[in-house]
Amino acid sequence: MAKVGSPSEERAGARGRVPSRHPEEGAAGAEGRFKTEEMILNVGPQHPATHGVFRLLATIDGEVLIDADPVIGYMHRGYEKLVEQRDYRQITNLVSRMDWLSGINNELPLALAVEKLMEIEVPPRAQYLRVILCEMNRILNHLMFFASFGAELGAITPTFYAFREREDIQRVMEATTGGRMHFGFFRPGGIKEDVPEGFVEGALAGVRQVIDRLPDYENLLVGNEIFKQRTIDIGILEEEAAYSYGVSGPIARGSGITMDVRKDEPYLVYDQFDFDVQSAPNGDCFDRFWVLIREVGESARIVEQAIEGLPPGPIMGKVPRVIQAPEGEVYVRCENPLGELGMYLVSDGDRRPYRLKIRTPSYSNVSALSYVLKNTYVSDMIAILGSFFFVLGDIDR
Amino acid sequence: MAVDEHRAPRTTESDDARRLVKARRPGFGIGLLKGMAVTLKHLFKHNTVIQYPDEKQDLSSRTRGVIALKEENCTVCMLCARECPDWCIYIDSHKETLAPKREGGRPRKRNILDRFAIDYALCMYCGICVEVCPYDALFWSREFEYAEYDIRELTHEKEKLSDWMASVLPPPALEEGAEYPGSPTRAPEVADGAAAPVKPVQAEASDAAAGTPERRGAQAAPLGTGGRPADAGAPKEAKPDVGPVPGRQAEAAPAPEGAEPAAAEAPPVQEEEQQAAPSQEQAPGPEPTAEDHAGPGGRTETASPEVLGIQMGAEPASPSPRESTETPSPEVLGIQMGGGPAPSPGAGEDAVGAPEEAETRTPQEGPDPEEVARLQETPGPNVEVPNEEPKPTALDPTEDPKEVYEAVLSDQLAKGSSPEVAEARAKVARVKAERGIARNPGVATKEDS
Amino acid sequence: MFDITLATWQILVIKIIVILTVVPVGALVGGYAEHKVMAHLQHRLGPMYPGGFHGWATTLADGIKFLYKEDIIPAAADRKVFSLAPAAIMVPIIMTYLVIPIDRALIVEDLDVGIFYLLAVGSLSTIGLLMAGWSSANKYALIGALRSAAQLIAYELPIVLAAVVVAMLAGSLSLIDIVETQNWPFAIWPPGIGFIAFLLFTVGAVAEMTRVPFDMPVAESEIITGPFTEYSGMRYIFAHMFAEMGHMVAFGGIGATLFLGGYQPIVPIPFLDFIPGVIWFSAKTMFMIFLFLWIRPTFPRVREDQLQKFAWKFLIPVGLALVLVTGAWVLYV
Amino acid sequence: MAVIEKVKLPGPASWLLNWSRKYSLWMMQFGLACCGIEMGAAIASKFDIIRFGVIPFPASPRQADLLVVAGTVTDKMAAPIKRVYDQMPEPKYVISMGSCANCGGPYWDSYAVTKGVDQIIPVDVYVPGCPPRPEALLQGVIRLQQKISGENPSEKWLGHTTPIPVIPEPGLAGGV
């Protein structure tokens, strides 16, 4: 296993890893122990813990996972090729399905890229609405994370509670955009149509309900001693390792990296809002979970501020009838719920992109898995997979 | 809006760090008890399950459940089929030539819709077809219950699609601060003030149209009754009801008197409304470039004869269509709200019905073929499209397939590929040779020389 | 009571028939209760349509369906062991029902060493789990079987210690005697001792049933129901569903008998005597079952090594200390 | 189980077998993509698919009756799906959920996507939508239950079911 800038094995052992029993690595330890045999366990592609079709080739020795090799590509749909055959409006609807938990966040970089190429000015109302919708989508995504993480650790109830809250927010999203998961709402230049009456109340109510119920969640999981045992000091991803694997988003922030595109390189109107970048220093499963749960609160704060400052006005900038990005190339990055989502758009002046390279957060995040999974227990593998919240569609595209 | 009541708690950074340290401390079972309290609390809470077949959610009108077709509005312009990313819309039509309306006029052609089917097994529910439809023939309905045992049954024909029109809701009112598309003024009072700019247009239109009452009557029936040709006889009964409808109805009132029952039974198809053209020339259309996104503004003028038809013939006793929820005729709403957010306001984006074109063309004629071709380079399923089959780049086989196979095989084996890989590559090369595709440019030129 | 004299074998047949009906019915009712209680704890409704009224027949439908579903034995499996394992799991569970006193006279067999019998029989099903896991020729099943063997042995001890405490307090190993001695249920009196013993028993019972939070051996999201991964049809329902539910009902009954006063009224007031013992017993059993069902959706599961540490380093020392304290209580109070 | 396929079952027995299968549909969740999340929503507390006796617990295909293929089936994933289906014991049912599983959906022109799960396994009910709302899946389940109640168990067992006209149940029929 290539270790890019990883800390020494001793330090990893000292930070909660199982001491290595692999004969090649710890030859000294092999004597005087039971002679054990390795077994290759094929986890996935259809396995309840892999939320999706993710395959992990695990070499296990008893309960200890010696080596883990993620195999991806089971959900590869050829996005980057497909978008070359579609015009921008059709792509908006397609990339929404890329990371299915954060549809509207995927549409945003595309819209921003086209706007940047075409030099379209987006009216403030559209920008505010974009922020609101993006942040609500972020809450949806994080709730899903909460649900799946609990379920993987064996606590099935959080799933049910989280889905109930998701439903409330999804209702508002549906009344606004027409879709529950795939919105297809952003257009180069603005948004598709203005929000319907009752949007503000609905959004506020939905977001506040989540905030109100957060203590319940914390009681169910965060404060739970068993949960703490299962997550604290498990699956540590150190700061330097996180850097070298290109990890971004909540997982990087859980390793103490205060990195957030919304703060570092503000797009839309994020620089007008008061919010914090949540981070935690330890880099274990608990910290990753902690950061995600805190981020729900931050997103709620942004939604409230944006609703407060929502200006009246048009929702579309001056755009030509047919969107044709002029020749050129542009890279736009946004903070997806799972990390940095970048789109590199090359246009040859057609109605379709010449090339669209998508840098998805999950893909980079998941590359750190085999490093983190090494020398852990099989049960911890589940906790780590859960805390590395990834979406298969986002990895494979 | 009282935003401050409930604001999400703001925490400082050191606060967060302290809380995290506290949360990471090992507990002594209190956390377990708290968790049990949470679940126990929910045992006694009122359940919020939506017991689906017995009770159903009240879905919003924008919900993308199923696409309904208002058959009368469809002019077979094919925009939807061509814009569909999945190509799941199938349209068949034929052209009919009708006798000229007046002595010496040119014969009219019109498209008759034979088939309009959507394959819902393939549809990705993106709504682009609804968005691009320039004549408001497609709407989103909230229905979602159409699972089938056979995939072929998921392709629904126009009869079924028209049935779904019954469940289409009027578009929602917009949030405070929204700009209603097509309105010259900003802000909320738009909704009420919208009638003003529209009014003269309608007056003109009604005057112009009054000369040909029979046609107007014919049109009123199918449109106004939400697409039910069976109700074509409605204008007669509807006449007395026209009076109470306030406002602009007054100008329109004289028109239906001339509507003859015979004309009312005419087939429910769109007719050319040549008389409407002069009225549109006088219409103060907004600047096309500036207001491009607000296409329905343009539609206000082009659609006005229809609108009048509806209001005269078929909106019996609905003084304020905005409040009536069961009338699925968005044109009326559109007018009342100032060109309003009809279910497909985005039509303006491709804006075939934008004012510029409307001045030179009549609304029911369908878009100019050239215009459509210019707009839509994407070929549609029902149009002559270049074949999608992969075509060989070179038409004549230049190499002997067998030779190529042998050559590549030995070449690969010599290069050190495993026998399987070598064989696979050789097979690929043979297939290419059979189809006349040069293996790679280098090889081809070498052999040629 | 009745003036009918029956031959011994006739009595035996009747007893067998009774037990063979009680266990599946108990399992079905337990399964239904699990569906409904869990659903309501999770803010859901649970089965509503099967059978009409609140889905009462849902587990019945499960039972009938599984009886005639295809029975797959994997090609690589050890056929004989694979087929026998469900019986090896199920029979000990059925056997536990024999000694639980439902009322003063309603007991299949009042053994003098009732508690001893319970503990001895209760640990037998481990063999069945091992058989199932090993013979399935499936890696997940193997991991599950090994985990369950380790776990069941570890958690047998806290139950034994808790039972020892009860036996010491009652001064007898017969379950009828244990119930009769409880003026106040042992979970309440003697103060502290009984309650801790009750907690020990509950934790041990949950682990013994391999339910959350101690369900590592059958963790669904991890090793896909462990030893039962390859089981289908009738064998599955006997090996897993009936066994788990039967186990739960049995442990509910045992808990009610040992700690909650069995068929006796919950408080020793003569006024309450008019309520038949069966009702008291059922109510207490239901309370125990509810406790098990309440724990299940609330907690995440404990990791295998943590689970072992918890048993050996915490529960068993506490149990041993408790035995000492109980001895002191019995001798000096 | 050879009895069922040889003997012509009397009416009540057929009814009982159909009834038990209908209300005990253990559901193997094959959440592949977006539809998997909506399937989760259908299971969760707002819609609660367990109300119909559809039990989403088995993690192993050996105990499942119903396979819900929810999401995009890629060519790489087709083999595992086929395998999971083969591992399920008879009688088994398949619901194809969403446009991708029905016939490729948005990825109809993708080189990596299987255009419809019915190319690899037989499908009983197709639920349209992209993704279908949770209620749409529930309606699909209801339609499947209607189908089951009209089946001949012995034929189903042998694997060649002749389609039987379905009598809509007044209580459950989600009107189409």
Any idea what the radius of gyration of chain B is? 31 Å
Cα distance, first to last residue of chain B?
81 Å
Overall geometric form of chain B? flat
Query: What is the mean pLDDT of chain A?
Result: 81
Cα distance spanning the termini of chain A: 25 Å
Poorly predicted runs of chain B: 1-8, 184-367, 372-395, 441-449
Helix content percent band of chain A: 40-55%
The CATH class of chain A turns out to be Mainly Alpha
The number of distinct structural domains of chain A comes to 1
Largest sheet of chain B: 3 strands, antiparallel
What does this structure look like?
The complex is a heterotetramer of chains A (397), B (449), C (333) and D (176). With 397 residues, chain A is α+β, with helices and mostly antiparallel strands. Chain A has helices spanning 9-14, 27-30, 79-82, 88-95, 103-118, 124-152, 157-177, 199-222, 225-231, 239-244, 249-254, 261-264, 285-308, 361-367, 369-373, 378-387, 392-396, and strands at 39-43, 55-61, 64-71, 186-187, 190-191, 328-336, 339-347, 355-359, 376-377. In chain A, α5 (103-118) runs antiparallel to α6 (124-152) and α7 (157-177) runs antiparallel to α8. The longest helix of chain A is centred in the middle third of the chain and has 29 residues, at 124-152. Chain A starts with 8 loop residues before the first helix and ends with a helix. The model of chain A is unreliable at 1-16 and 21-30 (pLDDT under 50). Chain C has 333 residues and is mainly α. Chain C has one domain (8-332). Helix content of chain C is 66%, strand content 0%. The longest helix of chain C is centred in the N-terminal third of the chain and has 34 residues, at 8-41. The relative contact order of chain C is 0.14. The model of chain C has no long low-confidence stretch (mean pLDDT 82). Chain D has seven helices and five strands; from the N terminus they run ααβαββαβαβαα. The longest helix of chain D is centred in the last third of the chain and has 16 residues, at 134-149. Chain D is globular, with a radius of gyration of 16 Å. At the A-B interface, α4, α7, α8, α9 and α13 of A face α1 and α2 of B.
What secondary-structure arrangement, pairings included, does this model have?
The complex is a heterotetramer of chains A (397), B (449), C (333) and D (176).
Chain B: H1 13-24, H2 30-43, E1 66-69, H3 79-83, E2 89-98, E3 108-119, H4 128-132, E4 138-141, E5 155-156, H5 158-163, H6 190-193, H7 195-210, H8 213-224, H9 234-242, H10 249-252, H11 261-264, H12 276-281, H13 295-302, H14 304-314, H15 330-336, H16 347-350, H17 355-360, H18 369-375, H19 401-415, H20 419-435, H21 441-448
Antiparallel strand pairs in B: 1-4, 2-3, 3-5
Helix pairs in contact in B: 8-14, 9-14, 19-20
Chain C: H1 8-41, H2 58-67, H3 79-96, H4 114-122, H5 125-135, H6 139-170, H7 175-181, H8 193-208, H9 220-223, H10 233-259, H11 277-298, H12 304-332
Helix pairs in contact in C: 1-2, 1-10, 1-11, 2-10, 3-4, 3-5, 3-10, 5-6, 6-7, 6-8, 6-12, 8-10, 8-12, 10-11
Chain D: H1 2-6, H2 11-23, E1 25-31, H3 34-43, E2 54-55, E3 66-70, H4 75-87, E4 93-97, H5 98-103, E5 125-127, H6 134-149, H7 153-158
Parallel strand pairs in D: 1-2, 1-3, 3-4, 4-5
